């Protein structure tokens, strides 16, 4: 049944119940003229008049009374079925499409995405990672994950944790052989893993200390555009790599890699989940946003009160 036919049936019942085109129009959110035209169209399609109309009153014709008696139970069944479907929105289900930088996706994959799927197994998540910045609305995504400074101003943003930082790392063996750089310009004498951005440009390593910013165009034996490959190269002793700290945190903790120039890599913008405002979000959408808020609050608390952990 099309929405148009359903609207026509609801209109007939509203007029029959109210006994007035004007009162029915107010109930349905239509103008009296629009409602009158709607009923006139239905009567022409049926080939009979459903209502006797005068300037003072409205009443059902015999055909209209028969029509209402037969349609009312069926329409109630349809409305009950629609209400039952809407009630299922109390249980998150369906698909959520999310766009994110690969590094951002790796950081939130276990604590947010996988944790969400464990909690809401009826939801399917379609996660797309790419380096370019996309218009999530135009490209059909429900949500995006980016650093706070890259979230469009017309979007609603949910911080996912404390500020992040970059990390320069190398193997202990490499540093023992080549020495540790004492300042960013010293990197020009080292082998470095070069990084290519999604737009094809080579990334110049960014440093900052005491309000002084430096950009270093490093040199090295290999150029890569994927962080996991760069990590493999660094772990193999090829040279020094430049990463988001979260990508090499476990390697640092295990002693496989050592940080250098840490005082030149201050915190950067935190990650944010972002989305456009919407009137009727699905239960799955609401649940994911709420879980993201929980994650952000927990991460902020850990940063403020590390002794509690």
How would you characterize the overall build of this protein?
This protein is of the alpha+beta class. It folds into 3 domains: 3-89, Orthogonal Bundle (Arc Repressor Mutant, subunit A); 91-163 and 269-308, Periplasmic binding protein-like II (D-Maltodextrin-Binding Protein, domain 2, 3-Layer(aba) Sandwich), CATH 3.40.190.10; 164-268, 3-Layer(aba) Sandwich (D-Maltodextrin-Binding Protein, domain 2), CATH 3.40.190.290. The chain is built from 9 helices and 15 strands. The strands form 5 sheets. It has a 5-stranded mixed beta sheet, with helices on one face. Strands 7, 12, 13 and 14 form a 4-stranded antiparallel beta sheet that branches. Strands 1-2 form a two-stranded antiparallel sheet. A hairpin with a 2-residue loop joins strand 9 (205-209) and strand 10 (212-216). Helix 1 (3-18) crosses helix 2 (21-28), helix 1 (3-18) packs across helix 4 and helix 2 packs across helix 3 (32-46). 26% of the residues are buried. Keywords: DNA-binding, Plasmid, Transcription, Transcription regulation. Residues 9-61 form the HTH lysR-type domain. This is LysR family transcriptional regulator.
């Amino acid at each position: 049944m099309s929405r148009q036919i359903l609207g026509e049936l609801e209109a007939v019942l509203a007029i029959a119940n109210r006994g007035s085109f004007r009162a029915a129009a107010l109930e349905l959110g239509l103008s009296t003229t629009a409602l009158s035209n709607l009923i006139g169209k239905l009567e022409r399609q049926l080939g009979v008049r459903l209502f006797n109309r005068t300037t003072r009153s409205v009443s059902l014709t015999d055909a209209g009374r028969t029509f209402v008696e037969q349609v009312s139970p069926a329409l109630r069944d349809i409305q009950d079925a629609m209400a039952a479907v809407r009630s299922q929105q109390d249980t998150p289900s369906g698909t959520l499409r999310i766009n994110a930088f690969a590094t951002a996706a790796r950081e939130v994959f276990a604590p947010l995405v996988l944790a969400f799927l464990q909690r809401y197994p009826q939801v399917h998540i379609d996660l797309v990672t790419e380096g370019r910045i996309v218009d999530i609305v135009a490209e059909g995504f429900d949500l995006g994950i980016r650093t706070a400074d890259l979230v469009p101003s017309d979007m609603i943003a949910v911080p996912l944790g404390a500020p992040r930082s970059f990390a320069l790392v190398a193997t202990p063996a490499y540093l023992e052989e080549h020495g540790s750089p004492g300042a960013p310009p010293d990197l020009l004498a080292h082998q470095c893993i070069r990084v290519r951005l999604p737009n094809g440009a080579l990334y110049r390593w960014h440093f900052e200390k005491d309000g002084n910013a430096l950009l270093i165009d490093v040199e090295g034996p290999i150029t890569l555009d994927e962080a996991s490959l760069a990590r493999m190269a660094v772990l193999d002793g090829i040279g020094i790599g430049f990463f988001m700290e979260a990508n090499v945190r476990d390697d640092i903790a295990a002693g496989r890699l050592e940080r250098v120039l840490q005082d030149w890599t201050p915190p950067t913008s935190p990650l944010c989940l972002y989305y456009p405002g919407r009137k009727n979000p699905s239960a799955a959408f609401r649940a994911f946003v709420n879980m993201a808020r929980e994650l952000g609050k927990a991460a902020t608390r850990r940063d403020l009160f590390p002794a509690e952990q």
